[in-house]
Amino acid sequence: MFKKQKISHYQFKILVVMCFVGTSILVTPGGLAAETKQDAWLAAIIGLLLSFPIVWIYNFLGNHLYNMTLIEYTEKVLGKWLGKLVSLSFIFFCFINSASLLYIVGDFVTTQIMPETPIQFTNTLFVIVVVMGSRLGIETLARAGEILYPWVIGIFIILIFLLFPNTDIKKIQPIFEHGIKTNLRGALLFMSYSSLTLIVLLMIFPAYINKPQKAKKTFLRGTLIGGLMIFIMTLFSILVLGHDFTARNVFPSYILVKKISLADFLERMEAAIATLWIITIFYKIVIYFYGAILGLAQTLNLQDYRPLTLPMAMILIVISLIIYPNVVYANTWNSTTWIPFVLTFGLFLPLLLLIVAVLRK
Fold first, then answer.
1. Would you say 338 and 197 are in contact if contact means Cβ atoms under 8 Å apart?
2. Cis ω on the peptide bond leading into residue 206 (within 30° of 0)?
3. Which end of the chain has fewer CB atoms < 10 Å from its terminal CB, N or C?
4. pTM to 2 decimals?
5. Interatomic CA distance for residues 37 and 183, integer angstroms
6. pLDDT given for residue 1 in this prediction
7. Torsion angle of alpha carbons 306, 133, 105, 288, nearest 10°?
């Protein structure tokens, strides 16, 4: 199996941040505002705190993986046939998530930036880059992340600094108006978009990390950095736009940055947030796609995953165009099916593997 590539624990932290932020920085503030109103920022804090036990479970499972990926470990713990069945379901999870993320990219570009460009062209061009990254391998992706990561953090800090004059503290009042249950539902929504999706990183950690013990700490640090970015963006969305306007927009962070106006000179900064988001969602898509094709290659006992990239990419484009027939369907899926779906693989699967591993010693 293609296991010669290794990345450092610092590079792994960058992948964690990219994967955590991904879609969340644009869509999470709107979802939280719709669920918890002006307490969206509070739900984000609770969600971030609850994300650490999830990552601890992933780290604990990583202790048992040794030099194996999650797919290899699943077959070892559950047996050949049951293990392959569970592995195929996890591969399906990764692949469907790749398609849904690709749909979001196409929807964002065609609705916000280039409305006259057909979505299939946008998705195809984006997948070409995803295929290139997947074929080059995780080491190349991680090194590219080292170059792009300072730009992501720098753009984020500059945008937040420029948004300060537009904030209004009254827009987050009254605090805790809707009670703990509503905030917990919002926290679960926050986790479903961010920390629970990090399960795919067990296709990289610890098998492709040169110092797995240090990577456990950076797993938590990456979660903290990514969580703080989402929390700050959610807080500023409420402080600047208000919870009503935030909840009514699919991409409230993009609308938020349009409010930047410094001396009638520094304006129209939405391209900056779009650049930040496209970088992070590229990493999230490519990690999910990489996990799917690597897992499929390991399940089929192939020596190399790269021959699968092109046919799987073609299928990915088609599924991304049909996965959400319309916006109403997408909203219904996100509100009714998405959370149980991601909990099954992000929480219940690692717990099942740990329990079975303990019982079988």
1. no
2. yes
3. C
4. 0.93
5. 10
6. 44
7. 60
Distance CA 306, CA 135 (A): 6
Residue whose C-alpha is closest to residue 14's, from 139, 193, 108: 139
Q: E strands along the chain, which residues?
A: none
What span, in angstroms and rounded, lies between the C-alpha atoms of 51 and 9?
A: 20
Domains of the chain: 9-353 (1.10.4160.10)
Task: Tell me the mean pLDDT per 10 residues along the chain, length 361.
Answer: 74 93 84 86 92 92 84 87 92 93 89 85 92 91 92 90 84 79 89 90 88 88 93 90 83 82 71 87 94 92 89 93 84 85 92 86 69
Give every CB contact of residue 276 below 8 A, 6+ residues apart in sequence: 25, 152, 155, 156, 159
Rounded to the nearest 5 degrees, what angle is found at the Cα of 320, between the Cα atoms of 5 and 141? 20
Q: How far apart are CA 101 and CA 130, in angstroms?
A: 12
Tokens of 301: 């006992």
